[in-house]
Amino acid sequence: MNVCLAHVAPEAEAWIVPLEDGELRVSLPARLDELARTALSCGAFKAEPDALKTFSCADGGRIVTLVLAGVTPWKSPADSRRSWLALAAAFRAALSAGAARVNVMLDNAPSLASPAMFERLAGLPEFVDYRFDRHKRAPSKKHFMQAVFVTAHSGLQPALDEGRADAAGTLLARELVDERRDTMRPADLAQRASNLAKELAGQGLPVTAEVRHEREIRQLGMESFLAVAKGARRSAPPELIVVRYRGAEDDPRVLALVGKGICFDSGGYSLKSNMRTMFDDMGGAAAVLGALRTVALSRLPLNLTVVIAACENLVSEDAYVPGDIIGSMSGRSIEMLNADAEGRLTLADAITYALREENAAAVVDIATLTGAASGAVGRRSAVVMSGHECLMRTVREAALFSCEKVWPLPCDEELRPLLDSPFADLRNSVPGNPSGGGAILAGLFLREFAEKRPWLHIDMAPVCYFADGAPGAGKGASGWGASLLYHFVKLLSQR
Length: 495
What we know:
Layout: E1 2-6, E2 14-19, H1 30-42, E3 52-59, E4 62-70, H2 80-96, E5 101-105, H3 115-121, H4 124-129, E6 146-150, H5 157-178, H6 186-201, E7 207-212, H7 214-219, H8 223-229, E8 239-246, E9 255-265, H9 283-297, E10 303-313, E11 325-326, E12 334-335, H10 343-356, E13 362-367, H11 372-377, E14 381-385, H12 389-402, E15 405-408, E16 426-427, H13 438-447, E17 455-459, E18 465-466, E19 476-477, H14 482-493
Parallel strand pairs: 1-6, 2-4, 2-5, 5-6, 9-10, 9-13, 12-16, 13-17, 14-15
Antiparallel strand pairs: 3-4, 7-8, 8-10, 11-12, 14-17, 18-19
Helix pairs in contact: 3-5, 5-9, 8-10, 9-14, 10-13, 12-14
């Protein structure tokens, strides 16, 4: 797809006109100009935030679509998400109308030409055009060939380039999550990570990948990870995936991004009642790989290590069962009381590995971790937890730039004793817990393995996958987190 900037609008089948108020500031082709002015003057379209209206007219023997979209005037990053959603809906309307070429009259809403805002808009054509339909015998023929942002402003090319790189990271995450179990087992995920590293290294970027198999994982003492993997070890052996980006040779510090990589989660012997979308349980792994891609292409001046403990959580004669007491790389013993609280067990060992083997100065974990997160914050936000003020402040700021909502929850110390076990150092869940706070308890469990280093936890379960669609994301994987982590890392690199 060709996405570009232009001072003069080329021929197109669809024209998107964002409106901050009721004023038409730009010139459109005669028929569209008349249609737009009539719609505004007669009240057929009220230029209010989030309003959207599509019109069609004949122009030179063809049908042309006009999309009027109400946007919020951009004054700060806090205004980004609402306008991003409005423009996403406008692109979706143009695509539904069958437009292959679309022009966006950016100057009709002057504040959208701010580089910080435009960087988010620049990725929308590809974001909206994405669909996972390669398994369909007759995939959709509706695709954008060209999207042109028409503006008199200069100096927006860097924002366009960054926005497209950011979108590509998100699309990588969406594609990885949308793959089903038969094409995205731990070995497949490891291969995709290795291929990504080779692709980036081929562009002269300092990226390498290492994959450790079951024997090496066992030698590392990652007993918690291996306990989860036991149920599928014969058909889908576990893989420890490590991808390193070294953008600051003189800086010994390393930031670790740890992504949950459960390629399918049946719940194990704590069997799930509905598991039709549980191929999405590696959404955290997809997010960290998408983020690393954008970080590397942006050549950010810092060192980043991605760690993914990839496996499946299945039922078999070898699988772990509730009541088992298992070890961990940290040396802590864990009483496993819920086989469906498996993600925190794999993440615990992955965090320990990042700290001890990769010498990470700080660690961020991201995971589709708890159903409780959706109940706590709704299905438009992710949960974030940290005892480190700088990391929490940075992730909240990053969310404003990525247009991905986060909702901070506290590290509530009054809940921490619920994780104590009379038989082991910790227990992985609290069956029959009358105190609630399941999302917080999961975060507190992971904090136990952070070894007092700066740590941030992101529970993306509410926003990873939308079978019935969601604003901005469409149906299927959202790719959530890749952009958030990129902006998070970018902000840290500037401090």
